[in-house]
Task: inverse folding
């Protein structure tokens, strides 16, 4: 196959970009990176539909929650033009995540304070129809009313899915006092505690979601947004947003480090593990477990790893505010197998720019932590989603979706002369088969 200068020019201007990877920590020759979509209103989260298209939650004006559909017919990592709107709720407020483990999709609607169930139509491009919702009543001034979601098929119950969601903390660094009320999907109103994760089983048989068996699965969390089930063990991993710093300027750093935690599959729904907030937590920068009060750490399940600054320098770059997480694509190189990618929304540093917004990789032993995309590279990495061979990053503030695809095989020797763009081209064309 002959690659012409004209082709290279087209690629150069049409979204191929290897520069968001944290080179040389990351070997960029192992990946094809493309700007899948750009100029979009606050893209937040994506999921692969059954027909291979990509559904994304976007939020025009931070007021309307939408699900839009992208296709990439030639599989070059760049969407086929503007997406199609499949669902739009003008009173939904900003959308958060989109998840599915069966036939229905579930999205978080931050403004409506709902988790909304959407049914696909007969054809992949048909509108999504709202068929139910869980509706939350938060006390005024509640600090963390943001729905984070994880889903799995219910073990031993065909046609049912388990939905895990967070009830974040009412305050920044104190125990929540006012219950949150939930109702919907056939459930009468029930009181939920802040600082907690809950799981509910939802039957999708017949197309209308019916919820049951609502139970608390964790306490002592502050604000969990990113959650994912391990693809082989079924353990639930989640990132917890730590107690905030008092100000944005160094040396005012947060007291607590953001955490990666785990609930073993055997404990999920059978016991309520405690994770320490607000009185037992790892100190920022030192990892020292702080125990505020006698016995505060008794029985606490400690974090797997804490998100500490990596090679911090005068720039103040670091990670702050974990968002979605995803286990590594199964076709990513060996180093990444079994590991977790964690997006960070970041925050404005003392330099006036967001330099706390990396994509962090944690390896399968929870010992290696590295920036896969360095702080300050793109906007707010709220969305991280894995397919078999790709990570999709939703850059909320930057309005873009990126695809990072593994280049699976060693390319033929002749293709080396084309450099990185050449490799990307070859990988893209091979994939069209
Ligand atoms: Ca394309
Ligand atoms: Ca925080
Ligand atoms: Ca904790």
Result:
């Amino acid at each position: 196959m002959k690659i012409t200068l004209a082709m290279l020019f087209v690629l150069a201007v049409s979204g191929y970009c290897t520069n968001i990877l944290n080179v040389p920590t990351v070997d960029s020759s192992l990946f094809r990176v493309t700007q899948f979509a750009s100029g979009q209103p606050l893209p937040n989260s994506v999921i692969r539909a059954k027909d291979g298209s990509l559904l994304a939650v976007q939020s025009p004006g931070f007021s309307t929650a939408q699900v839009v559909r992208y296709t990439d017919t030639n599989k070059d990592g760049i969407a086929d033009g503007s997406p199609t709107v499949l669902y739009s709720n003008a009173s939904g407020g900003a959308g958060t995540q989109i998840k599915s483990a069966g036939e229905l999709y579930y999205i978080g609607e931050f403004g409506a304070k709902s988790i909304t169930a959407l049914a696909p139509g007969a054809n992949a491009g048909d509108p999504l129809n709202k068929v139910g919702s869980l509706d939350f009543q938060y006390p005024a001034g509640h600090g963390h009313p943001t729905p984070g979601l994880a889903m799995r098929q219910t073990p031993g119950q065909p046609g049912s899915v388990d939905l895990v969601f967070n009830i974040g903390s009412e305050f920044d660094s104190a125990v929540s006092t006012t219950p949150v009320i939930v109702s919907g999907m056939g459930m009468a109103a029930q009181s939920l505690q802040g600082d907690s994760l809950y799981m509910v089983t939802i039957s999708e048989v017949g197309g209308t979601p019916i919820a049951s068996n609502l139970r608390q699965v964790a306490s002592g969390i502050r604000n969990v947004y990113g959650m994912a089930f391990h693809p082989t063990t079924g353990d639930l991993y989640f990132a917890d947003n730590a107690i905030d710093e008092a100000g944005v300027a160094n040396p005012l750093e947060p007291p607590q480090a953001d955490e990666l935690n785990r609930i073993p599959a055997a404990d999920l729904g059978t016991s309520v593990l405690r994770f320490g907030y607000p009185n037992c937590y790892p100190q920022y920068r030192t990892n020292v477990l702080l125990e505020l009060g006698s016995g505060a750490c008794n029985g606490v399940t400690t974090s797997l790893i804490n998100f500490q600054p990596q090679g911090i320098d005068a720039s103040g770059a670091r990670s702050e505010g974990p968002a979605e997480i995803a286990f590594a694509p199964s076709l990513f190189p060996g180093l990444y197998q079994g590991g977790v990618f964690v997006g960070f929304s970041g925050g404005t540093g003392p330099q006036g720019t967001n330099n706390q917004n990396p994509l962090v990789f944690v390896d399968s032993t929870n010992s290696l932590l590295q920036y896969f995309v360095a702080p300050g590279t793109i906007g707010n990495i709220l969305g991280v989603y894995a397919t078999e061979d790709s990570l999709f990053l939703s850059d909320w503030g930057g309005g873009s979706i990126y695809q990072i695809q593994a280049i699976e095989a060693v390319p033929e020797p002749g293709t080396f002369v084309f450099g990185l763009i050449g490799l990307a081209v070859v990988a893209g064309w091979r994939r069209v088969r």
Notes: The longest helix spans residues 419-431. The radius of gyration is 21 Å. The longest strand covers residues 210-219. Residues 1-14, 409-433 have pLDDT under 50 and may be disordered.
